[in-house]
Amino acid sequence: MKQVVNAVGRTVPEKIRGIQYTPFKGAFATPPTGKKHAPPMRAVNPGESKLIDLEDAIKTYVKDGMTISFHHHLRNGDFLVNEVLQIAAELGKKDLVLASTALFPCHEPVVEHMKAGVIRRIEGSMNGPVGKACSYGHMKEIATLRDHGGRARAVECGDLPIDVAFIAAPAADDYGNCNGVYGPSACGPLAYSHADSLYADMVIVVTDNLVEFPCVPISIPQITVDHIAEIGVLGDSQQIVSGTTQVTRSPTNIQIAEYVVETIDTLGMIQDGMSFQAGAGGISLSVTAQLGALMEDRKVVGSFGLGGVTKYLVDLLEKGVIKKIIDGQCFDLPSVASLRDDPRHQEISMLYSSAHTKGSIYNKLDLVFLGATEVDVNFNVNVNTHSDGLLLHGIGGHQGPAASADVTFITAPLYRNRIPIIRKEVTTVSTPGEVVDVVVTEYGIAVHPKRKDILQKVKKTHIPVYGIEELQQEAYALCGEPQSPELSEDIIALIQWRDGTLLDTVKRVKED
Fold it and tell me: 440 forms bridges with which residues in the sheet?
């Protein structure tokens, strides 16, 4: 396997499974080429029913070796992935490529399907047990991880061709119009499946809430849907709140959030018309709450907040602190209700986040604050693996806003569990340092050398400002130098940059 060194100094293969890969050359160094992928032409005649039994759909349309896709808006409450794969296994289907936008701990049964040969490869984020199994080499082929926009781009251009898309729809009619804001499994937008609905060869909407035609509002329209399958229960919408969806109470994390807001204020960015992306982690929620309180106090009105949406962002909308919410994913039920009831809160296709779209919403962002499992002295960020090398997280919506916002903040403590987070070299590069502007820890901040404009302003304040190497040295002084994980040379996953170039690889971890 011929390997080359890319622009972040990582050695990556030029070819995998016979597919030629372009090494990462820089955040904006590889312009788009070619044309959009297109699904086969198909017509539905007058009087023809689109309704189908789910097992019949799998038996008819899913063939060995095919790529099948799902979305993850139900997060840890999703039932559909497990149900479809169980039926496929019982029907003897083999060597499938699973292209779910993300997998969660609830998808642990996927591990057995990997070992049994039902699944040969995963193209998507893996959180928890499935990622760990991949780390230990239990997947037949090398996985591919992309950020949310990178996946949409890959589907749109044909890098990730989908044979059959299964779209979990909390409300749908018998012609395929569907949404995610009504029904017992209401989860919010269906943004992650929009690209699949446009470009998959076969689109099957699956619902537990078949309603009278027409189902409105329409997230995915009838014109892209081949069949509708009704099942008993689609998922548990209470579990979309999986993960951290409460403002942090940790003094360390509160301090980090305060430094972020103070830096934003120092830069003069708290002004009418400002925009920001709000995450769902504890620190990000604290930043959102503190920033919103400051805006409210100064009677500053922002143009929009971009989600992952939580009740904290909805609260700012209802108070008039921001004018609109643009929503790609809901992280709690109050956000679902807001999307359903408030016309100022709008769903958006995940194609908005593609690097190759003509109108990425990220290009309109002033601010973004993102987390990390590790950050290194070159400002490279890891969100995929832990320091032991285990692949336990997806890239999520990290790369796109980091690359495009006017100011990108990475928030992370100096160490966790006596393990340095600020280090000489990250285990895995998920987002390259060239798109990071400010790293914020409880000890203070580090500004990327290219952002002299930011550095000049923050140095005039009481905010502690350090070189990134100083933060790394402080972390090592407190915790000791971390041991590099014992990894084999076997590649188990590829990390793509948002434009499809190869950013890094993940190596196999020795199983205990």
Answer: 411, 445
Give me the pLDDT at residue 248, please. Answer: 80
Q: Which CATH architecture does the domain made up of 52-237 adopt?
A: 3-Layer(aba) Sandwich (3.40)
| Spans of all domains in the chain | 52-237, 251-497
DSSP secondary-structure letter at 24? Answer: P
Q: Considering the domain 251-497 in this protein, what is its CATH number?
A: 3.40.1080.10
Residue 5, burial from CB neighbour count under 10 angstroms (0-12, 13-18, 19+)? exposed
Return the axis-axis angle of helices 282-298 and 311-318, rounded to nearest 10°. Answer: 10
Q: Which residues contact 434 (CB under 8 A, 6 or more apart)?
A: 26, 27, 379, 450
- Specify the DSSP class assigned to residue 107: G
- The three-state secondary structure class of 376 is strand
88 three-class SS: helix
N- to C-terminal Cα separation, the chain = 28
By the 8 A CB rule, do 384 and 506 touch? Answer: yes
Between CA 188 and CA 195 the distance in angstroms is: 17
Per-residue model confidence (pLDDT) at position 244: 56
pLDDT for the residue numbered 243: 56
Q: With a cut of 50, which residues of the chain have pLDDT below it?
A: none
Query: How many CA within 13 A on the CB side of residue 3?
Result: 12
228-262 CB burial, b ≥16 within 10 A, e <16: bbbbeebbbbebbbbebbebbeeebbbbbbbbbbb
For tokens 């309109």, name the residue: 364
Strand partners, 391: 385
